[in-house]
Automatic annotation (TrEMBL):
Subcellular localization, as worded in the UniProt entry: Secreted
Lineage of source species: Eukaryota, Fungi, Dikarya, Ascomycota, Pezizomycotina
Domain Auxiliary Activity family 9 catalytic: from-to ranges: 18-219
GO molecular function: metal ion binding; monooxygenase activity
GO cellular component: extracellular region
Annotated protein name in UniProt: lytic cellulose monooxygenase (C4-dehydrogenating)
Length: 229
């Protein structure tokens, strides 16, 4: 990986600080680590996914992990994740969901296929150098759309560290999938639907980008438009 001298000077000491999303926050309560969240491969080293074409880009699950439980949440309520280590790197925060197919369960379904829709996408604030709403956050949350049909879902958080993203596979993806059972939902039709891997390309303008020089004046979130319910 090549870095420009300018980039290194502007962004010192950024390589080692990583983070995970181990706990779901339901009804304002922080739950135990990996209780409702599928344990990720990086649960000890905290390192990111960098290959958007790998299966790890979906839920970053650790092979052989213990099965997680499924949390009950009301449609229209907020569900969040603890960011352990805090969101140290600059970049966008996104939440996706996927409905568990009939006959399967959130506990065991693998989340494959064109099944994922986005419920939140947070880009930067412009003016001077870019700042991001999730900078330094220790918890992040999204509202489950009130019109979302009831049922079991995977609930995926994604933060993309863009501090060294000017080359292919330089962006750092921090990901977790929670297991939730939505109650009191509506008759909405979530979309557009995408697959993981598949939703992103390494060269997407929101993934391969130098955020330091020249400072961008616009930013395109990777993936589909947000479904607003
Ligand atoms: C999900 O909620 C429904 C409605 O309350 C319930 O019948 C079902 O057993 C729940 N499933 C899980 C896995 O919690
Ligand atoms: Cu890091």
């Amino acid at each position: 990986m090549k870095f420009s001298t300018t980039l290194l000077l502007l962004a010192p000491a950024i390589a080692s600080a990583h983070y995970t999303f181990p706990s779901l926050i339901v009804n304002g309560q922080t739950t135990a680590e990996w209780q409702y969240v599928r344990q990720t491969e990086n649960y000890q080293h905290n390192g990111p996914v960098t290959d958007v074409n790998s299966n790890a880009i979906r839920c970053y699950e650790r092979p052989g992990r213990a099965q997680a439980q499924t949390a009950t949440v009301a449609a229209g309520s907020k569900v969040g994740f603890v960011a352990k280590g805090s969101i140290y790197h600059p970049g966008p925060l996104q939440f996706y969901m996927a409905k568990v197919p009939a006959g399967q369960s959130a506990a065991t379904w693998d989340g494959s296929g064109q099944v994922w829709f986005k419920i939140l996408g947070q880009g930067p604030n412009f003016g001077g150098s870019l700042t991001w709403p999730s900078d330094g956050a220790t918890r992040v949350e999204a509202t489950i759309p009130a019109s979302l049909p009831s049922g079991e879902y995977l609930f995926r958080v994604e933060h993309i560290g863009l501090h060294s993203a000017s080359g292919v596979n330089g962006a750092q993806f921090y990901i977790s999938c929670g297991q939730i059972n939505v109650t009191g939902g509506g008759n909405g039709s979530p979309g557009p639907l995408v697959s993981f891997p598949g939703a992103y390309r390494p060269t997407d303008p929101g993934i391969m980008i130098n955020i330091y020089y020249p400072v961008p004046t616009s930013y395109q979130l990777p993936g589909p438009a947000v479904w607003r319910g």
